[in-house]
Amino acid sequence: MNQAPPLTAISNPVAPKTSLAAVLSMVFGLLSLCLSIFGTIPALILGIVALVKINGSQGQLTGKGFAITGIVTGGMGVFVSAILLAMAMPAFVAVQEKAKEAKQINDVRILLVACQDFAAAHDGKYPGALKELSPDFISDESILSMWNSETSQFEPYMYFSGKTTNSEPRSLLIASPAISQNKRVVGFCDTSVSAILDEEFYRLAELESDGSL
């Protein structure tokens, strides 16, 4: 009796799939040119992961071109980010310095008003030292000093004692102990406050020491 030949299983080859990580790497890589570092890091990580998986998939995953594109554009994003950072850093530093200068101007103005109040109560004489303003004329002693980023410590404001309300109006009374962008904040006997070049400050201080002012 003849037997029917055994049926042979017909295997349907599975079509390779495109790696999702590779596609996302390319997308983030392209976006990194606009989003800078926020797109760069995902592009590089996903691109490397995609290449590893594709190489180990034995042909079941494709998208190596997408992954390489993502890595390349992600690397370009790093370069773009570095350029943008280099361009933005001076502006950021300038804003910080302006903020410091504004605080010093405000502090010196407060000290000048306190000196005026002190003089009104002491026959027109300004205090012998700024610490004499506390606690009757200023409530917060921390305003007597400022943070010096160069020495990494608080330093007291410079004070030119021996002045009265009858002193030369543009005579120096208070000055910041540190300079910022070659400028120093100074307060005059007429209660005006200015940020002047350090050279100008030393010229005025020299005139006062010579009795010319």
Structure keywords:
213 residues; alpha+beta; 2 domains; 4-stranded antiparallel beta sheet; 4 helices; 49% helix
- What integer is the average pLDDT? 85
Biggest sheet, spatial arrangement of strands? 5-6-7-8
Strand content: 5-15%
Number of helices, counting only DSSP H or I runs of 4 residues or more: 4
Helix content: 40-55%
Number of strands: 8
Shape: rod-shaped
Quote the distance from N terminus to C terminus: 133 Å
Largest sheet: number of strands, sense, barrel closure: 4 strands, antiparallel
Q: C-alpha Rg, in Å?
A: 35 Å
Secondary-structure element sequence? EHHEHEEEEEEH
The assigned structural class equals alpha+beta
Low-confidence stretches: none
Count of discrete structural domains: 2
Structure summary:
With 213 residues, this protein is α+β, with helices and mostly antiparallel strands. It is built from four helices and eight strands, in the order βααβαββββββα. The strands form three sheets. A four-stranded antiparallel β-sheet has the order 5-6-7-8, sandwiched between helices. It has a two-stranded parallel sheet with strand order 1-2.
Description:
- It is a single chain.
- Helix content is 49%, strand content 14%.
- It is α+β, with helices and mostly antiparallel strands and 213 residues long.
- The protein has two domains: 17-90; 94-209.
- The strands form three sheets. It has a four-stranded antiparallel β-sheet with strand order 5-6-7-8, with helices on both faces.
- A hairpin with a 4-residue loop joins β3 (145-148) and β4 (153-156).
- α1 runs parallel beside α3 (64-121).
- The longest helix is centred in the middle third of the chain and has 58 residues, at 64-121.
- The protein is rod-shaped, with a radius of gyration of 35 Å.
- The relative contact order is 0.09.
- The model has no long low-confidence stretch (mean pLDDT 85).
